[in-house]
Design brief:
It contains nine helices and eight strands. The chain is of the alpha/beta class. A six-stranded mixed beta sheet has the order 2-1-5-6-7-8. A two-stranded antiparallel ribbon has the order 3-4. The radius of gyration is 20 Å and the shape is globular. The N terminus is likely disordered.
């Protein structure tokens, strides 16, 4: 059963309320008119310059700030995140911004479509076969860092889930096609759903629940869940409203997501 712990909800408040470093805000805005050439080229150049300018000023603007300096210095001693946050690589999903997490509080795993691949099976030589990076991240978070919560967060208007439910031709991006085919599987519940709206909310939510169940197939996760030292959460984020919903099982067996 997927539950929602109070501490997971509390992390959805802005970081400055906890007295920690305030998440950095972009101070240098792109100026498209400062570059020559076609409009699209000017836009790309201005955006990159904005990113570079903010990276250059980050230490002086945020780390050296008296309110943040001590917290940043403490990071050199190591990390002890409370949660593993599994979400999509989509640029519209920014975990630290959504949750208000401070540096060192959130361990992240980002994949195309927030997919959790099956735990790698051992081959004839005893070595694991299949996607390893994702499994390594999950094992490290659970076994070494000792996170107490894992959040799988899907989002509205997900391109990966939309491609699956719309049965799009992904032959032009074979790595994406193979990743989704291998990781989602032909019998996944979302494959039977129709893309009735652009946000593909129903399919994304079904997909998130499937990934949570996939996590239970990881030995380290299964053991920690069994002894009640690890809790799994299913979240759904609307990119256009900022609303975060969580899965709340009911006594009637109805599956539903409702706002945190």
């Amino acid at each position: 059963m997927v539950t929602t712990a109070d501490q997971a909800v509390s992390r959805a408040t802005p970081a400055h309320r906890h007295g920690g470093p305030v998440p950095p805000r972009r101070h240098h805005r792109p100026d498209h008119t400062a570059f020559p050439g076609p409009p699209e080229r000017r836009r790309r150049q201005a955006t990159l310059k904005s990113l570079i300018d903010n990276a250059r000023s980050f230490a002086a603007t945020h780390v050296a700030d008296p309110h943040n300096a001590a917290a940043f210095r403490a990071l050199e001693a190591g990390q002890s995140p409370e949660a593993l946050f599994v979400t999509c690589s989509d640029s519209r999903v920014v975990p630290a911004l959504i949750t208000g997490a401070r540096p060192g509080e959130l361990f992240e795993l980002r994949t195309a479509g927030n997919v959790v691949p099956p735990y790698p099976a051992a081959g004839i030589d005893g070595r694991a076969e299949g996607p390893m990076s994702e499994a390594a991240t999950i094992e490290y978070a659970v076994c070494v860092l000792g996170v107490r919560d894992i959040v799988v967060c899907g989002h509205s208007h997900c391109g990966a889930v939309g491609a699956l439910v719309r049965r799009e031709d992904l032959s032009a991006v074979p790595a994406v096609r193979d990743w989704l085919e291998h990781s989602v599987g032909p019998d996944a519940a979302l494959r039977s759903l129709a893309a009735t709206s652009p946000d593909v909310a129903e399919a994304v939510q079904a997909h998130v629940l499937a990934q949570v169940e996939r996590l239970r197939g990881y030995p380290c996760v299964r053991e920690r869940v069994a002894d009640n030292s690890l809790t799994l959460h299913a979240w759904y984020y609307e990119v256009h409203t900022g609303t975060v919903s969580t899965h709340r099982p009911s006594d009637t067996g109805q599956e539903s997501f409702s706002p945190l």
